[in-house]
From TrEMBL:
<dbReference type="Pfam" id="PF09521">
    <property type="entry name" value="RE_NgoPII"/>
</dbReference>
<protein>
    <submittedName>
        <fullName>Restriction endonuclease</fullName>
    </submittedName>
</protein>
<dbReference type="GO" id="GO:0004519">
    <property type="term" value="F:endonuclease activity"/>
</dbReference>
<dbReference type="InterPro" id="IPR019046">
    <property type="entry name" value="Restrct_endonuc_II_NgoPII"/>
</dbReference>
<keyword id="KW-0378">Hydrolase</keyword>
<keyword id="KW-0540">Nuclease</keyword>
<keyword id="KW-0255">Endonuclease</keyword>
Amino acid sequence: MADLLKAIKTIVDNPIPDLVSYYQGKNRINSIGDALECFVKDIFAETLSQSEQALKNERYSEVFSYIGNQNNPPDLILKNGDAIEVKKIESLKASIALNSSYPKSKLYYDSPLITKHCRQCEDWQEKDIIYVIGVPENKKLKILWFIYGDCYAADREIYERIAKKISSGITEIKDVEFSETRELGRVNKVDPLGITYLRIRGMWGITNPIYVYDYIFQTQATENLQVVVIMKEEKYLSFSPESREEIEAISNVNFQNQNVNIRDPNNPAQLLRAKIFIYRI
């Protein structure tokens, strides 16, 4: 079964310093965003060296139970495994725009933001989610993060409480006609003709992990790609012994495997035992 540890092993065994150049000749891809999405699928499916798209598609079908779109999370779901959300930051210091989707510690079956096809892709109720965050510089990928949501985001009740409070406050405005919506609110008949409406949307964002985890990782002054993986220790121990043995056996001098303590997203006064893997190409 495909998992993140095997994907990281694939990256170490097949270093690609420039993703755009690598995929440009294979798929006519010119943007870092498109190249990043292809790369993520290929490392999990172990199809980096496969040039035939038809054969890649067959392998994708074996590895992924769901491949989504840009409008609904997640981007990918591993069969009987984790969900994956791919994000590209425009610069090393920029925050991440999540738009209408608040940050997730887990992916839940009952989330109103996911599609019917995502719910029906397999029998599931809750999934761990990996945020894959690419940071380009000078048209090349500078840093690539793989962060489990429960290391990065608080429980969903934290975000939903704020959204519900705002939404309920909006509907208390007098002499305004509202209608049912999945957004924060919708006002109908704003003008005298009753032909104009106002959509009230939440636009979520989250701080760049380069600042969130600056106490356990510092970028180096290099033009090449740096890969950083963060997960709870209990998540690491949930992987198969085979996957753990493979990644622990990596002897590459550019690869680091460390035990660290990270702040609990729900209570920063508490520290969580975690694993960080760092690979510099």
